[in-house]
């Protein structure tokens, strides 16, 4: 039998403070505690109360999943539950996701979890998956791997070095901010894939995804929607990634393609 050993809560607090590049004085002032008391908490000379721990986690912008780990390390019960997406009391969440996905039609939109695994999508995503190797689509399909892998969408991305630089920068930042070893491993994996990176400043207002589809090069801009007030881990870690046309020609093509293809949306994957 394996016994799970957690680092002391003070060590975890110090790691989060350093990850946010804050001094003890900075964090103490922000949380309205003395720097001396914070130092005692980090070294284990004092034990944080539940309220103090939650206050520090809030100031440090610790993700909900990791806030539970802080609480457990201090001997408290977790504060945030995790429900399966198909649980009855998650019906409002699934309805909201369906509404957002439908609203983006005829433009592709998909729901991913914190690991960037596909949860569901609208039917407009289907044409972009033509030619993708089946093994990349097996659940849980990771959408970043799918986009950058040579057997995935990568050969059809016209500005692959530029798009790779954007994706890898974003993923690396998420791995650092969350401390998630799974995201860090995914970043290493995707960095090792071929395709190059172009870190030059792009023209325009955002990095577009320029992809060969429907016999043309379509130009798309990415937007992200999240649940801003979620206190359930599943809901808090979901995001909707939508790809909107960056020019009128792309919009025309996507509208035409969607009107002739009746692809159903992928089945929703439970995330409990």
From TrEMBL:
What PROSITE patterns does this protein map onto? HTH_CROC1
The residue ranges of the HTH cro/C1-type domain are 13-67
MF terms per GO, please? Answer: DNA binding
Transmembrane intervals: none
Give the SMART domains listed for this entry.
Answer: HTH_XRE
* Name of the protein this chain belongs to: Helix-turn-helix domain-containing protein
